[in-house]
Design brief:
The protein is α+β, with helices and mostly antiparallel strands. The protein has four helices and eight strands. The protein starts with a helix and ends with a strand.
Length: 197
């Protein structure tokens, strides 16, 4: 029994490290609730990785609504065309979750690329929640949502110094109703550029 326990102590950390090295980004929810209904964050708040490795193969970005691709260096905040992914400034979330929906990955990638190419640009990520849950819980959930977006941006080239995460929880609803349609609009992170380059 004692040998089994020692082997288990040695094998589990190795399996964890191997799993982390090959796991895709954000495959699980960032917010987990414990049995008391509190928040458990599996990551360290505010600790954002940065990936500076971009290859020539990454010189084109797809995911534009019309199916075309544009050079990443051509992305500009001043371009108000509907096909500019930088014009999408609200990321929506599922109920009680901070995992980024697949439909927003291209939007986040476009913002990350803009930040990486414009080191003087700064962004505020405002996390929000719907009215369900306690005030404290919703503040925490909004923060987890903002940090989730910040992690994605950091992994795709944005630096931590460019990002500021703020949570308003349920305090600033986008919709005032008490139904699912309103709640869906309130579960969000708003992207606000505080300094453009």
């Amino acid at each position: 029994m004692n040998i089994f326990r020692k082997a288990l102590i040695l094998v589990v950390p190795v399996m964890f490290l191997v799993g982390c090295a090959s796991a895709p980004i954000d495959t699980t929810d960032d917010v987990l609730t414990d049995s008391a209904g509190g928040l458990n964050d599996s990551s360290t708040s505010g600790n954002i990785g940065s990936v500076a490795d971009t290859s020539d193969d990454d010189a084109q970005m797809t995911g534009i609504e019309d199916g075309s691709s544009i050079g990443r260096s051509e992305l500009a905040l001043s371009d108000t065309s509907p096909s500019n992914l930088l014009n999408t400034r609200v990321i929506y979330f599922d109920f009680d979750r901070s995992k980024v929906r697949a439909e927003f990955t291209d939007v986040i990638a476009a913002h990350a690329e803009y930040l990486a190419n414009n080191p003087g640009a700064q962004m505020k990520l405002e996390g929000h929640a719907d009215e369900r849950g306690s005030r404290e819980y919703n503040i925490g959930l909004g923060e987890h949502r903002g940090n989730s977006i910040a992690r994605h941006l950091g992994l795709q080239g944005a630096s931590r110094g460019q990002l500021d995460v703020v949570s308003y929880g349920e305090e600033r609803p986008a919709a005032m109703g008490h139904d699912e349609t309103s709640w869906e609009l309130n579960r969000r992170v708003e992207i606000i550029y505080t300094r453009e380059q």
